[in-house]
Amino acid sequence: MKKLELDVNRRLILKGSATALGLATVSSFPFGSSLAASFPARNIKVYVPTREGGGADRLLRAVTGVWKNYLSTNFEPSFFPGAAGRVGYEKYMGLAKDDMYELLFGNMGPEVLNWVVKKPTFDLSTFQYFAQVDSDPGILFVSRRSKFKSIDDVIAEGKKRVLNVGVSRLAHPATLGALALAKHTGAKFNPIPLSGGKNTRAGVATGEMDLGALPSGGIVSRKKSFKVLVMFSHKNPLPGRSENAPTMNDHFKTNMPSLIAGSRAFGIKKSAIAKHPDRFNTLETTLKKVFADPAFKKAYLKTKSPWEFIGYRGPEACAEYSRNISKIGQEFKELLSGKKT
Amino acid sequence: MEYDLSFFSEMFVRTFSFWWVIIPAIFLGLVVGAIPGFSAANTIIILLPLTLAMDPEIGLTFMVALYASSRMGAGIPAILVNIPGTAGAAATPLDGYPMTKQGRGQQALAMSFFASISGGLFTTVIALLSLPWLSQIAYYLHSVEMIVIMFFGISLIATIAAKDTLKGLIAGFFGLMIGFIGTDVVYETPRGTFGFLELYDKVPLIPALVGLFAISEAFAIIERQSILTERGKAAMQNPGWSATFEGIRMAASRWWHITWNSLIGLVIGVVPGAGAAIASFVAYQQSKTYSKTPELYGTGHIEGLIAPESANNGVTSGTLVPLLVIGIPGGATAAIMLVVLQYHGVTVGPDLFLTSPELAFGPFTAMAVTYVLMILTALPLARYMSKITVISTIYMAPIIISFTLVGSFVPRAYLFDMNLALVFGVIGYVARKTDYHVAAILIGVILGPLMETYFLRAMKMSQGDIMVIFSSSIGNTLWVLLVISLALPYYMDHRRKKLGDGS
């Protein structure tokens, strides 16, 4: 009996405390009704499916460092690395609320290919990218010490023997480019996943790999060590820095869609857009302004990446890119998933 | 530009003038190295705004000093409370902690510091003088050769299992099985993850390290009043400087041991992707194999302590070689240094030695100066640090658990990792109580995934031909050395017994 009384008292105390806390919270927002209508009224959380300190982190900080001025709010990045982005996406889709205060910032190309190879636990149709920030094309490259001086040298050798191509991972747009080129020319390429750009560059630099396939940014900035042989995009955005490397379409008369290997973009739950179209509009319009702001260019150039990659692409362009990359991914799905070698 | 004696003398004098940035970095490095989870790499990331604002030469000096001292700092808790601060110090407690329990903590710290400082200083000078040749190692040690080097480390399981072969091998294979959890490196197929997304990228090392060593140790020490034995308590009654000097003298008398183990570290450090954990296990295994008293290893033997400590400090200068000569960082900390250099518009690679020799050679002179200054700053600390061991376990155990749980959370900021550390703590505790060696489990957890990575890569490159592992002449030479190093202890044992019978 005594225990029951104690329970009741504890509940009363807890209820009373909760009520008091609630009242205090409400009373501390004198303009509560007007704030509910304005967006954003608090910080925006950004899920990043990679490790802190990497390229995505640097780019995100450059964008949000300016975007926050247009939204009058701060951004809080949270990093969920692991399994080539899979952990971050699963966490976002599992934890994020659809109130437009929680976004994702990922790399579309490799991450869309992730889903082609292995389906996620969430329904893909409930998620969409809405703003692509950069476009870094996939390339084939060699070490300056390599005997290959041009893509024709590589293809000629590839017809005689299997060439080991260092790649960041199998399900990656640059890997698809290498496989598509091999299929078109009849050269034999054996993609070797080396877990990231740093390891891939090391594999090529030390001569363990015959050549490598990666996004161009990390290679053109090291042009004393590496030479770009071919680009998997419609046009070469960096002719000066890549010694006028040809595109695959130009050089081999193919009609491949652009294989943009670095394609960082903001994504969101579709239910958030459906619930808050006005808030979504606010995000879109303010983000577009960031790209024209000289402060963004200044912040981005500090990351030592080429400004030529930067450009806003909206939801339709993101959807088109995702469709294209999925389609090519499906074509090579068996190779990427090990069902065929 | 000529690189003569006067050039290097000027470089050293110039670097000494940065003492005001090196000394704080030494103390910061000792602290972050000693706390599991807070590595030099994490700290440098956190301090990026500070280092980016500095002049590149000063920023680089700060990072190098922090890196070198954190390596040494990781050995402190490994020796005093059986908790390696990083995976690179995982072999240190094998002989360091038994010394502490005997009341020789101060002596062990002094030995460790001396081995770290002299090994690190020696390999830094060697690296500085032989940069062009040393950088070539990365061109010859590829996946096939690294498989054999991994075997050198993994064979330590068999060495540890010498006392109870079956239990040692069970522990080692259990560790290897845990190490294979996660997605495979080629097709990213998840294996043994039990549906946990957080395990897709392998079992994270820090929670495993923290759980197996620290938390299980905390569970174990709470059962007694002190981590010290009765003899140890008596020895710790009047700690003076003599134990420090004696430790230095004993370590210095084994200068040859320090020299060749630090060279093992230097060579392994030059290979991109290899690291201090591999080097320290390989060094320990080699040290025991060629020792005249292998039976003393694991009981608080001096050589068992100085081998891993001199090797993991040899790695430190090694990781800088590929970064500066070919622009490829040898490890995580070197990769972050690269970010800072790029931010300042510095392009690393062979040209750096012509365009900015002060930046190219600077990290090595900074490292050498750091080690010299550590003689004055870190060595005297051994006397005071060893007093930690007299703290009652009633206070020690909760402090260890809370600190290390936070440490296990830091690298990935997943709550899951704290739970994982507790699970490993229970595994470690059960292992200790049933005489399964936790170090054997940890070797499997650390080296298993690395060996699998090199093996699968080699197999993919050869398109499934297993004979690829015998396809390189350097690799084959290493195989022969491996067989010799495995067979030698048995041969020596047999010879000793035969000589014993004869006499």
For this entry, what is the oligomeric state of its chains?
A: heterodimer
Number of helices of chain A: 15
Instruction: Kindly report how far apart the N and C termini of chain B lie.
Output: 65 Å
Query: Tell me about the biggest sheet of chain A?
Result: 6 strands, mixed
Number of helices of chain B: 27
Mean pLDDT of chain B: 85
Q: What is the average of the pLDDT values of chain A?
A: 86
| Unreliable stretches covering 5 or more consecutive residues of chain B | none
Description:
The complex is a heterodimer of chains A (341) and B (503). Chain A has 341 residues and is α/β, with parallel strands linked by helices. Chain A folds into two domains: 42-135 and 263-331, D-Maltodextrin-Binding Protein, domain 2, CATH 3.40.190.150; 137-258, 3-Layer(aba) Sandwich (D-Maltodextrin-Binding Protein, domain 2). Helix content of chain A is 47%, strand content 19%. Chain A contains 15 helices and twelve strands. In chain A, the strands form two sheets. In chain A, strands 2-1-3-11-4-12 form a six-stranded mixed β-sheet, sandwiched between helices. In chain A, strands 5, 6, 7, 8, 9 and 10 form a six-stranded mixed β-sheet that branches. In chain A, helix 3 (55-71) packs across helix 12, helix 3 (55-71) runs antiparallel to helix 13 and helix 5 (108-117) packs across helix 14. Chain B has 503 residues and is mainly alpha-helical. Chain B has one domain (5-391, 399-502). In chain B, 72% of the residues lie in helices and 1% in strands. Chain B has 27 helices and two strands. In chain B, helix 2 (19-34) packs across helix 22 (357-377), helix 5 packs antiparallel against helix 20 (332-343) and helix 11 packs across helix 18 (276-289). Chain B is globular, with a radius of gyration of 22 Å. The mean pLDDT of chain B is 85. At the A-B interface, helix 4, strand 7 and helix 8 of A face helix 20 and helix 26 of B.
